[in-house]
Amino acid sequence: MIQQRGNFDWMLKQLADGVPGIEMIVVLSADGLRIARYGGEPDAADRVAAACAGLQSLAGSICQELTVGDGEMKLIMIEIDRGYFYLMGAGANAFLAVLSDVRCEPGRMSAMMRDLVVRIGGHLTSPPRRNGQIV
């Protein structure tokens, strides 16, 4: 069930075990490449990662227009039919995305994601790339 690049299995499983209703967890780079996943199909995780890159870019642009705070996107939550989608910054050039069903309580999910990012955020980074190569 866990597919990863690097040893992310323990941290993603810990989040999944801590909150009921999680269907998929994806760790992605800012440019939309899947770094790791828990649950779901690999192709679905790749599509979620790609979509999240656009979503976080859009949210970042909106945040830059606001005069309150530091202008960084902290958490996006979208209520969908029979569930929720969450996207949170998780380190330098990395993001944590979660899809869950309705059993998941949004406040608990965001708190658990935040705790995970605080504890292991330094490990959830994606080095910048230029022309497809790590720089």
UniProtKB/TrEMBL annotation:
Q: Which residues cross the membrane?
A: none
InterPro entries, alphabetically?
A: Mycobact_SerProt_Inhib_Rv3364c, Roadblock/LAMTOR2_dom
Roadblock/LAMTOR2 domain spans which residues?
Answer: 9-100
What is any Pfam family matched here?
Robl_LC7
Indicate what this protein is called per its UniProt record: Roadblock/LAMTOR2 domain-containing protein
Q: Which organism is it from?
A: Streptomyces viridochromogenes (strain DSM 40736 / JCM 4977 / BCRC 1201 / Tue 494)
